[in-house]
Each structure stands twice: as C-alpha cells, then as structure tokens.
Amino acid sequence: RQPLLEVRNLQKHFQLGSGKTLKAVDNISFAIERGETFGLVGESGCGKSTTGRTIIRLYESTSGEVLFDGEDVHKLRGKKLLDFRRNMQMVFQDPYASLNPRMTVGNIIAEGIDIHGTLSGSKRKERVFQLLRDVGLNEEHASRFPHEFSGGQRQRIGIARALAIEPKFIIADEPISALDVSVQAQVVNLFKKLQKERGLTYLFIAHDLAMVKHISDRIGVMYLGKLVEVTTSDALYAKPLHPYTQSLLSAIPIPDPEVERNRERIILEGEIPSPLNPPSGCPFRTRCPMAMPECAAAMPEFKEVEPGHFVACHLHK
Ligand code: SF4
Ligand code: MG
Question: Which residue of 290, 302, 305 sits with most ligand 1 atoms within 8 Å of its CB, as the best mutation to test the pocket?
Fold first, then answer.
C-alpha cells in the first residue's frame, strides 16, 4: 500500500535580490503512512516550515516530487487541485496572527466550508457548533471575536478551522511553540484525540525534540535544508545516530536529578552557519564534535543503516 504522502528529492530554492540562491529545502525524501504522525524537527531557519509550505503548495517546488495519494501535488489542476486543497489543511504557529480579528469565530471556522461550498444555512451552523465542541469550546463562542480568547483557545479555533472540510492530512507548523508550557500538553492531547476519532495523518513541525516526543510515530531531523536522520520516535530517543540529533537530545532536561547530574551534555560550538553560505561536505561539520577530514570533502549520503532508520553521516556507512 502506498504511503499517503511521499516526498522525493524535494528542493525549494529562493533566488534572492543579491543574486544568491537560498537552498531552503535541499533534496529531501521521506514518506508518511496513513494515520501516522511524522514529527519534523530542527532549529529555526533549517527549512522545516518551507518544507511544509511546499508540500501543501503554498510554495511551488524547485524540483523533486510531492506525491499525495499517489498524485504529484505540483502538477494538479482543476478539480483534482480542489480535492487536494480540501484534503490537506494547515494549522499555523501563531494563533494570534493567523485568525482574522474582524471575523467572528464561527465565520473563521466556516471559511473552508464557504470556499468549497459544502454546506449552508442551518447545516453550516450545526457543523460549526459541532467543531467547536470537538475542539473543547462551545456554541456560544461562535459569535465572539478572536481577541476574546486565550492563546490555547485560539489555537483550538485554528484547529477547528482546519478540520471544517474534513481533510485527511494536517500540517501543523509549530502549533504549540507560541503557547504557555501549561497549555502545550492540552493542545497536543487534542491533536491526538482528533487523530484517533478521524483517522487523520499529521506532519507535526517543531523546533525541539521535547515537543514532538509524545505525538510522533516517526521523526525527521533537519539541519540547513537537509534531512539528517529519520526513524521511529522510539529509536530516535533510544539510539540517535546523527551527532546533531544526539546534541538536540542532550539539551532536553531529564526529570530525575540523579540522572541529570551524571550525564554528559553535548554542547554545540559556534552558530548555525548561514544557509546562504553552507559549509562544503557535511552541513553540520562546523559544529560537529566528531568531524573528520572526509566530512569537509563530501556530503554524506542519506541512507538506511538499519531497517527504517535513515541517517546522513560519514560515521554510519
Ligand atoms: Fe559529523 Fe562528519 Fe557525521 Fe557530519 S558526516 S555529522 S561532520 S561525523
Ligand atoms: Mg518556522
């Protein structure tokens, strides 16, 4: 059975005014199975949001393929493009900026319904009420405006809007990063509940591994526009192979103070290089504690070193 989403050698480059090329997404490949949550992680500027936006075709790709249900997203036209737009929806990072302050919550949630003309009148209203209940809000909220809600509630509204036309696939671009720590877990739990009820498939983007741990079945780690490691959540936390993944994991505090005191942290030297001027060879070599001469000479291939475990590093051949 084919995966619901397959990304093959995807590139998204931006030509800048200076004549330089920004390789925001540089030849990445991964697949997401139906009903799965794939976490995409990396520091800001690594290309994870651009990956999401290119998959959903907010950006046209530079090269490579995005296959959704077997169809190349970037070649869709007409009715097939419309179907794709219904089936893939996005939840944005900033629940303050992504909701129109002059629209009522009910009309915000019904945006997709109105664009696609799927329901009207009392059926439309009933769907909006149902969506509000599904995300833990209530009917009275439909006539209010976004500023009357907290960050967590606004993100619930953003989720209800994404669900309104019953998509199969949701790209959540750092949906909990802007929220208070105390509400992050609630929103993650809501994503999980909705997935279970509706059989949804998620691409869940985050800037640190702690945020995706409890939701992802598999995780991909990005660095400077490249995927450097992909495997199951369990394998990634138990046995990370890429030195960058190892450093990200070592930055997550461990609740047990005894363990926390005795473990070694990997502190990365230096800043993340400019994506406009990436290092030769392995993009991580300027900060990698394990770098060897060959790391400057050649970009390590992204390959499967154990079943389902992909890594791009000269230490793993
Ligand atoms: Fe480090 Fe070399 Fe592996 Fe890159 S290829 S992560 S520089 S050891
Ligand atoms: Mg981003």
Answer: 290
Per-residue confidence (pLDDT) for residue 136, from 0 to 100: 97
Question: What 8-state DSSP symbol labels residue 279?
Answer: P
Q: How far is the CA of 91 from the centre of ligand 2 (A)?
A: 12
Distance of CA 70 from the midpoint of ligand 1 (Å): 34
Longest dimension (CA), the chain: 68
pLDDT digits 0-9 by tens, 278-303 = 999 999 999 999 999 999 999 999 99
pLDDT in tens, 129-168: 999 999 999 999 999 999 999 999 999 999 999 999 999 9
The answer, yes or no, to whether any atom of ligand 1 lies below 6 A from the CB of 243, is yes
Residues of the chain with pLDDT under 70: none
What CATH number did the domain enclosing 82 receive? 3.40.50.300
| pLDDT confidence of residue 12 | 98
C-alpha closest to that of 116 among 142, 95, 87:
87
205 belongs to a structural domain? yes
Q: Which ligand is nearest to the CA of 42?
A: 2
Q: Whose atoms come closest to the Cα of 228: which ligand?
A: 1
Instruction: Tell how far CA 250 is from the center of its chain.
Output: 21
Task: Establish whether residue 266 lines the binding site of ligand 1, counting it when its CB lies within 6 angstroms of any ligand atom.
Answer: no
- Residue 2, classified by CB atoms within 10 Å of its CB into exposed (0-12), middle (13-18) or buried (19+), is exposed
As for how many domains the chain has, the answer is 1
pLDDT at 296: 97
Residue 289 lies in a domain: yes
Q: DSSP label at 255?
A: S
Q: Establish whether residue 295 lines the binding site of ligand 1, counting it when its CB lies within 6 angstroms of any ligand atom.
A: yes
Share of the chain above pLDDT 70, in %: 100
Residue 316 lies in a domain: no
- What residues make up the domain containing 156? 5-311
290 lines ligand 1 (CB under 6 A): yes
Q: What is the DSSP string of 13-79?
A: EEE-TTS-EEEEEEEEEEEE-TT-EEEEE--TTSSHHHHHHHHTTSS--SEEEEEETTEEGGG--HH
